[in-house]
Amino acid sequence: MLEKKMEGINTNKVIEEFEASTKDAGGVQRETLKKILEENGSAEYLQNLGLNGKTDPESFKSCVPLVTHEDLEAYIHRIAEGDSSSILTGKPILDMSLSSGTTQGKRKFVPFNDELMENTLQIFRTSFAFRNREFPLEEGKSLQFVYSSKPGKTKGGLGAGTATTNLFRNSKYKSGMKAIQFQGCSPDEVIFGPDFHQSLYCHLLCGLLFREEIQSVFSTFAHSIVLAFRRFEQVWEELCNDIRDGELSSRVTALPVRMAMQKLLRPNPELADLIYKKCSGLSNWYGLIPELFPNAKYIYGIMTGSMEPYLKKLRHYAGELPLMSADYGSSEGWIAANVNPKLPPEMATFAVLPNIGYFEFIPLQDNAECMYKEPKPVDLTEVKIGEDYEIVVTNFAGLYRYRLGDVVRVMGFHNSTPELKFVCRRNLILSINIDKNTEKDLQLSVEEAGKLLAEEKLEVVDFSSLVDVSTDPGRYVIFLEISGEASEEVLQECCNCLDRSFVDAGYVSSRKVKAIGPLELRVVWRGTFLKILEHYLGLGTVVSQFKTPRCVGPMNIKVQQILCNNVAKTYFSTAF
User: Fold this and answer.
1) What family, per the record (predicted)?
2) In contact, 293 and 140? CB cutoff 8 Å
3) Which of 39, 187, 218, 433 has a CA positioned 20 to 30 A from the CA of residue 324?
4) DSSP string for residues in 24-93
């Protein structure tokens, strides 16, 4: 039934519905909150707060406090243990999403239900409608670097998987993707394969086998796409051999994956020769993606925030092919859609869908910092252009006035709903004294150092940081993985450049009076950040959910150990 209903969605109708809801975003927000509270008014959590059936925003805000995940952990734990009473929601929660844990170093359970699934499909339909208006797709397939972890169970028997796993395994997902011409070219056995490396190899092989049909290239995060084509550089000849002989490489050992792939393979020496010739003719792999997939219209995935450092490499692979940033959300649910697909990822904005949750915004007065004195939250339509806010979410899955921890900037309005730009995670900060440097500040500093390496035809593969307070005074430590060997002089200048590029007034003044010690650059061996990825895969994270930890906190001991145990060279800044 669902497949028939959704097949060939009317994109004009989707856009009309979006336009209508955003013209009266304030009214839609009140109705959305009313619906959430009517559906979940019997929940123990809301009953204990004395809401007593009230559904208006004023009563809601006066009764229900702002919370973090830590405040709700006891309630979520009871649900995960199998308590089926109305704890956070009116209807029982049957599934939990697991966050990646790459931000905090600790994975957390987040309730997931059918309403969140419907919100996901609505976000996908909305952004597709705007995207397809600008870049219409033809009949074909999408090369999707997506991976699903093995679904687990909580102690109480609830389904437990990553947010992406909950999507991919939901019966509505496939029909929803078919409706927006977003069907992957890889068999399910590859997506749900037990080994990421084998699945990645098979994704690449499937893409080549269907190269003429590929209309788009996708992964949840830009990092996964870059990772895939870095791997392609290493295995392309082996892939050509598989296509030429019609036999799958022995590197793929998982039997269900082998069987599914073998059904697709036939000896095809002409295709193998064509791919070999195209790869051999490239200069340093520039324009690899359009060369392999001549009918691809764009590359799509989350490319903002911690993904921005990968854009330079992704553009190298993409050549002239457009990059498009996917929608804005989190493990807790979706928030906003990209309705301006022509904007480059660095300028991408996301329009809040006013009917998928109730949203509040805590004003952050000082744009240069991400730790602020706290004013009262304002409503969706009360935000001001150019101002920064922390998002507070109330959703259909039991999160009420939940602080997401994301800082966003209001760039404009689409009708009466704000268009947001992601700025940083509020709690990811390098700070020792009066200094406060965000993940974005770190990224800008690394970009400046990267320019020095680029002059030597080298690049930053990945990076991270921590605050070292074991010495007095404490100092910033930056870890860089570099694509090749750089001279001592260049690396020392990179170290100085990193130090100088933190322009936060508190940092500069503290460095000048030696209240913060010289920045330390630690160059790590090639493959170090893959070891960090492997560590998180071992914990159950999937590649398509992985984000490199940029500021490694003191509790994230294992990642600290991986970084510190793989240091090849160390330099101290002489910039101040």
Assistant:
1) Belongs to the IAA-amido conjugating enzyme family.
2) no
3) 187
4) THHHHHHHHHHHHHHHHTT-HHHHHTT-TT--SHHHHHHHSPPB-HHHHHHHHHHHHTT--SSSSSSSPP
Q: Quick check: 395 and 116 in contact, CB under 8 A?
A: yes
Q: What is the pLDDT of residues 497-546, one digit of tens each?
A: 999 999 888 899 889 989 899 999 999 999 999 999 999 888 877 787 78
For the record, the structure tokens of 523 come out as 């160059």
| Comparison of pLDDT for 101 and 222, the residue scoring more | 222
Tokens at residue 269, please? 């020496």
Spell out the residues 6+ positions from residue 250 whose beta carbon is closer than 8 angstroms to its own. none
Q: State the CB neighbour count (10 A cutoff) for residue 356.
A: 27
Distances (CA, A) of 312 to 316, 341, 346, 410: 6, 19, 11, 25
- CA-nearest of 312, 326, 317, 271 to 296 is 317
Exposure b/e, 413-451, CB count within 10 A at least 16 = b: bbebbbbbbbbbbbbbbbbbeebbbbbbbbbebbeebbe
DSSP designation for 106:
S
Q: Count of CB atoms within 10 A of residue 257's CB?
A: 24
Q: What is the pLDDT of residues 202-211, one digit of tens each?
A: 999 999 999 9
Of the pLDDT bands very low, low, confident and very high (cuts 50, 70, 90), residue 371 is: very low
CA nearest to 390, candidates 414, 420, 345? 420
Q: Which tokens go with 97?
A: 């999403």
Residue 366 has a pLDDT of 57
The pLDDT value given to residue 175: 64
Q: Are 523 and 484 in contact (CB under 8 A)?
A: no
Q: What percent of the chain has pLDDT over 70?
A: 91
Taking the CB of residue 474, how many other CB atoms lie within 10 A of it?
Answer: 18
Closest to 289 measured CA to CA, from 232, 224, 209: 232
- Sign of the C-alpha dihedral computed for residues 373, 389, 546 and 117 taken in this order: positive
- Rounded to the nearest angstrom, the gap between the alpha carbon of residue 97 and the centroid of all alpha carbons in its chain is 15
- DSSP state at residue 89: S
pTM recorded for the entire structure: 0.84
Structure tokens at 344: 């480059």
- Give the tens place of pLDDT for each residue, 403-454: 998 889 999 999 999 999 988 877 767 888 888 888 889 999 999 999 999 9
Amino acid identity at 92:
P
Distance of CA 26 to the CA centre of its chain: 28
Bridge partner residues of 74 (DSSP): none
Measured CA to CA, the distance from residue 202 to residue 208 in angstroms comes to 10
The count of other CB atoms within 10 Å of the CB of residue 538 is 9
Residue 319 backbone zone (phi > 0: left; psi -120 to 50: alpha; other: beta): left
